[in-house]
Sequence to fold (516 residues):
Amino acid sequence: MALETQDIRARSATTTSVAPDARSFQPEVSKLIDLSKCIGCKACQAACMEWNNLRDTIGTFQGAYTNPPDLDDQSWTVMKFNETEVDGRFALLIFKDGCLHCADPGCLRACPSPGAVVQYQNGIVDFQQDHCIGCGYCISGCPFNIPRLRKEDSRVYKCTLCSDRVAVGLEPACIKSCPTHALSFGSRAELIEEAQGRITDLQERGFSQAAVYNPPGVGGTHVFFVLPHGDRPEAYGLPKDPRIGPLLALWRSTAARAVGVLTMFSVLVAGILHYMRHGPLEVPEEGEGSAGPGAQEAKP
Amino acid sequence: MSERDQDLLLPDGKILRHGNRERVVHWIIAIAFVLLFLSGLAMFSPFFFWLSALFGGGQFMRFVHPVCGVVLVLLFYPYAFRLRADNRWTAADSHWVRNMFRYMRKEAHFSDTGKYNAGQKLMYWSMVPIIGVLLLTGIVMWQPWFAPRFPPFLRRAAGLLHAVTAFVMFVGIGVHWYAAFWTKGSIRAMVRGTVTQAWARFHHPGWFRSITGKNP
Fold:
């Protein structure tokens, strides 16, 4: 959603300038999701729908408590209930799915439309749907499979980290609704410290593999997790080592695109120079024979 | 060479090089290519995103790009199939390629080309696979209908391959345009269909012989 009150750090498909930057001192914000405290009540999911005024369609039972079954353009956060085994015993690993607001966002890199994806100074990654062209490159570029294309309007939607609420000093709607303090919001530096404390607590309680999920492959994320089973992020549905990857980096690389465009220009220049030097290839006047002007015939 | 080659010699002494259907198909393909080129360039580099204004904005441009691509493919392959015999590679073509730069400097000319010279055949044989790769990678990226069926890894690979292949095609078509402009009489051949006997004798002696029965 459009939001000019916050300052922009990065803007998609913009190679020349990034505007405006005057308040670059703004602290980075973050959301900490402590899955050891989550009881799966879905209050955050309901609050998200309420604040963002979304209306998902009523689906069908998919064999798990997860409902709706996945993120979509009307559900920007979804509680996932992963039924799995840990240490040979059944475990219900509850997970809150949604955008992680990467420091180096693959969606922003992939987007070809100037300003359709922006990153604010406070670290929030936001889609500006009025600039979106519906190409879906952000979906291919996201290491976490988050953005969803809405077929009805060919625009992509995802969690905004309630950038509209944060801009006026409020916490995101999901944070406000959480009854167990599994969700917290605030300055990124303070929350990273807070997460480390919770890891220590968990390890004392016997979760020896507890870890913070703040993947360095995407420069860290502005939504990060305390995972009781931190050695197995895949069990929660998180990629083990998410990264931008060489394919996306090369495809959307400014240098590669510049080389491509310059080569195309040079074909034009080569044509002009060749025509200036050699002139057109014309049929010689009658009587000069069939060979080219001043040409010696090349025999096979 | 078909047995109807002699019919190409028209009563006014001109030779029919490109028939009505061929010319119409060629120019529809050319228009589709220009639209694909402009919209593709806008999505390829932010420097050219302003080209989206020519299409009434990014949303419509994104919609119309794959539609033009399908039009191009549907017209190109039947057209290319009809031209396949005239584009068969010969030993004389290899000789032409070895002397390509001398030809471009007008230091050498060739007395044995058929309807198409080796440069034109190279263009033909490069476009046949390039357009196929662009079609397949384009389908993998095509939102909202086909792309969701493919994993993100494949879509990224398709995006990269589509860009690289399209770049090769842009350069190839650039050469095609320049060659047509440089070789006087060939744009006329593709617009009005006919060439003079002198033109045919000079540029495509083998083809001239098969039509007129005269030695070039």
About this structure: Chain A touches chain B through 55 residues (CB under 8 Å). The domain at 8-244 of chain A is CATH 3.30.70.20 (Alpha-Beta Plaits). The first strand of chain A starts at residue 8 and ends at 11.
